[in-house]
Amino acid sequence: MTYRYSTRLCFFLVVCFVLVAASSYSQVECRWNEGHFPQGPVGDVRAMAVYDDGSGPALYVGGDRFGDIAKWDGSQWSTIGSVGFGSYSGSVYAMAVFDDGSGPALYVGGRFKEVDGITVNSIAKWDGARWSALEGPEPGGPGVDSWVEALTAFDDGVDRFLVVGGHFMRAGGKKVWRAARWDGERWLGFSGPRRMGFDNDVFSLEVFDAGSGPELYAGGWFVRAGGSRAFGVARWDGRRWHRVGDTGQPGFLGTARDLMGVRTGALEGLYSIGSIIDVTQIQADAVARWDGERWVHLPDQPQIDDAWAAAQFEIGDGQSLFIAGRGSDYGEWARASLNRWDGQGWSGVPGTFYPDEMSGSFRALLVFDDGSGPALYAGGEFELLGEHGSENIARLTCVSRKNVEDQE
To answer: What does the alpha-carbon distance between residue 267 and residue 289 come to, in Å, rounded to a whole number?
Structure first.
């Protein structure tokens, strides 16, 4: 085979690959707020979770400026409670489902003192019928001494815990330094051998299996975890915190506002979403991926001023990672807040965003099936204009164009 022939063949194969990929992508149609989806909560949405209180799975929503915790059951919105400080409304920043042995319950964290008049101090439990505080036998009282930013359930193979991260220093009166565990009866810390947690706020928590079993990861605006250097992200091995990196690269400078673990396929890895300043002198913008050995820069990232959340969602041509936040003026994605990474490259959400149709920022993403099929729910502080416009929460559904044509 001659050099000229092999070059032409390679060029032909590359062109075919690009055309096939473009054709596949073009066969997907995504729409906002299709079908029955009335306007949801009025305030800024910061947290969402799916929980079944016995009547079927439902989407639960909380955030800023309204204090209410809302529920979408696929047909209507309702309110299950209000957080606040007396007559002033509070904020919900995190939600998670955890079973402490008495059955699955919804846990809500944020910046508030009370929920429906019950003193809880920034974190509360909803069992489907009533609210309760997280208070152990210690004399320190319920909850934590400052606000909560992140919640997740974790089973280390021995015990199950609700893991809590945020701005607080004490939980149930115990010094815990911004991260704590609730086992259903008492508060425990993550102090490690030096009896220290984190030197700054914890914004995100994720359970991810990198090949040796599920492990707990914490992300935030910190440079030390358990008394050792760990920039941005740290891993808990059951006894102590470790940096996610090596001696020369103990993480990255910046803020990990969200962590998303993907276990299989082309997207496999642990993703950090936020304001990443540097990964060993490589500018990583809003997203970086940990491949088990090092932090990897995702090429050609769109400029996102504030990235807040990520979700894995299949839109018809395979799984993709969606990154939410507040965008800048960067060409065809001007002011767009939602972008898609498919493992090979970036794209805007097809048929959705135009320069003057979206303002504000997305803060939370979650995939939920309300009975009409899986959809990506986006919450934040925004106004979506158009025929199916909405404020602060919207639902994205994606189907193949062939299915659309068949329905028509």
So the answer is: 9
pTM value?
Answer: 0.88
Amino acid at 55: S
Q: Which residues pair with 170 in a beta bridge?
A: 175
77 closest CA partner among 37, 33, 128? 37
Identify how many contiguous H helices and E strands the chain contains and give both numbers.
2, 35
Q: Are 395 and 375 in contact (CB under 8 A)?
A: yes
Which DSSP string do the residues of 292-326 spell out, in sequence order?
SSSEEEPTT---EEEEEEEEEEE-SSSEEEEEEEE
189-227 pLDDT per residue, tens: 986 656 679 999 999 999 999 888 899 999 999 999 998
- Distance (Å, rounded) from C-alpha 342 to C-alpha 346? 7
Q: Radius of gyration over alpha carbons of the chain, in Å?
A: 22
Q: Could you please report the per-residue DSSP string of 176-202?
A: -TTEEEE-SS-EEE--TTTT--BSS-E
Identify each DSSP E strand in 328-389 by its residue range: 338-341, 346-348, 358-369, 374-384
| Alpha-carbon distances, residue 104 vs 55, 99, 128, 214, 329 (angstroms) | 13, 4, 9, 20, 44
Q: How far is CA 11 from the centre of its chain?
A: 40
Measured torsion, CA atoms of residues 135, 136, 140, 141, in degrees rounded to the nearest 10: 20
Q: What six digits make up the tokens of 204?
A: 């995100």
- How far, CA to CA in Å, does 87 sit from each of 26, 43, 53, 64, 159? 51, 17, 28, 15, 39
Q: What's the CA gap between 41 and 380, in Å, rounded?
A: 11
Report the alpha-carbon distance of residue 29 to residue 229 in Å, rounded.
46
Report whether pLDDT(357) > 80.
Answer: no
Q: Are 397 and 388 in contact (CB under 8 A)?
A: no
In angstroms, the Cα distances linking 135 to 183, 187, 311, 329 are 11, 8, 32, 48
